[in-house]
Amino acid sequence: MANDETRPESIAAQALGWIDQTTRAINPPIHMSSTFLRDADNQYSSGRVYIRDQNPAFDQAEAVITALEGGHETLLFASGMAAATAVFQGLRPGDHVLAPHVMYWSLRNWLLGFATSWGLEVELIDMTDPSSVAAALRPGQTKLVWVETPANPLWTITDIAATAELAHGVGALLAVDSTAATPVLTRPLELGADLVMHSATKYLNGHSDLTAGTVTTRAENEHWQRVRAVRAQNGGTLGSFESWLLLRGLRTLYLRVRAASTSAQLIAEYFYGHPLVAEVLYPGLASAHGHEIASRQMHDGYGGMLSIRTAGGEAAAIATAATTTLWKRATSLGGVESLIEHRASVEGPGSPVPADLLRLSVGIEHVDDLITDLEHALTVAHNGIELRV
Ligand code: PLP
């Protein structure tokens, strides 16, 4: 279906327009077979041997994501963590990698706890500052620069094009965790990134009913071959039903992300300067960190994720999350239902997250209902709490 003129909304809505050749169904069947028949002449003319990394249920979702990202090839994984760690496992002992201080906390912990014991030299830096990146790069030894933008949960912005240029200058690859931005808002490969990764558990699926991860490459190369081998051999692959659900979720990606972004912008503006809110962290605010860069590299909005810092400190933040009713008190993000979370309780010591921070994942409910619920909870939570000046 897709040609160069086909817009991404149309590609997503029809999932590339694939029709099942046997039944003419416009949605694919859910393939469950774990194995495939060998031909009498001992060949596998179907091209498939075993389901682990050759599941037919991967094909369409991978092709759709490749088209939306403008890449060469996509691999599905069983979770965002499986996808992200495969990118690092594709490197070799002794390789030096740069990653940001502010990033998805579990991956930061994995890098410091596991990747280092496998011989990777991991250095965490302020990725939002190109001079820190330039100073940390080691020609010949730095093999990968990992960027997350907007970065969970402070929503700081990294300039993808500038960082890619620096990474390429020393022969390193640039990988972007684009979970919060999605291909609706940012296409990292067009900006010079070599790899783009998503926790598809979030917006790509959008319904909080599976875990999945994806990595898309701009080009075939030795590192990509190793990532492919990691998936096949480590075996962190997605199940058939989850692949099917992901494809279904992808069809409404553009509507969901645009709706969440529009509401997040309104919520950020409403609570900016609010007496019970010390700070609103959202790249769509003119005063926000990286707003100017975000305006260049994000299109159609700044995403559905924001954080607020309560004026009454940690106790008020926890009490606010305890009081909302429409905002559900739960971890994760990118679903159709809005979520609120006291992030420091999750990330624990060593995290750069302030204790008074609430992370908000904006869903597709009516924005006025979300504002009313949050304002009511803030008011109840701050009752009797002395505000900081
Ligand atoms: N990257 C980001 C930005 C995330 O928010 C998450 C999960 O919250 C992950 C990666 C990991 O994804 P998963 O939970 O699917 O393993």
Automatic annotation (TrEMBL):
InterPro entries: Cys/Met-Metab_PyrdxlP-dep_enz (IPR000277), Cys_met_metab_PP (IPR054542), PyrdxlP-dep_Trfase (IPR015424), PyrdxlP-dep_Trfase_major (IPR015421), PyrdxlP-dep_Trfase_small (IPR015422). The keyword Transferase applies. GO terms for cellular component: cytoplasm. Keywords: Pyridoxal phosphate, Transferase. PROSITE patterns: CYS_MET_METAB_PP. It is an enzyme of class 4 (lyase). This is homocysteine desulfhydrase. Pfam families: Cys_Met_Meta_PP. Transmembrane segments: none annotated. It comes from the Bacteria. GO terms for molecular function: cystathionine gamma-lyase activity; cystathionine gamma-synthase activity; homocysteine desulfhydrase activity; methionine gamma-lyase activity; pyridoxal phosphate binding. Belongs to the trans-sulfuration enzymes family. It catalyses: L-methionine + H2O = methanethiol + 2-oxobutanoate + NH4(+); L-homocysteine + H2O = 2-oxobutanoate + hydrogen sulfide + NH4(+) + H(+). Its EC number is 4.4.1.2. Its cofactor is pyridoxal 5'-phosphate. The modification N6-(pyridoxal phosphate)lysine is found at residue 202. GO terms for biological process: cysteine biosynthetic process via cystathionine; transsulfuration.
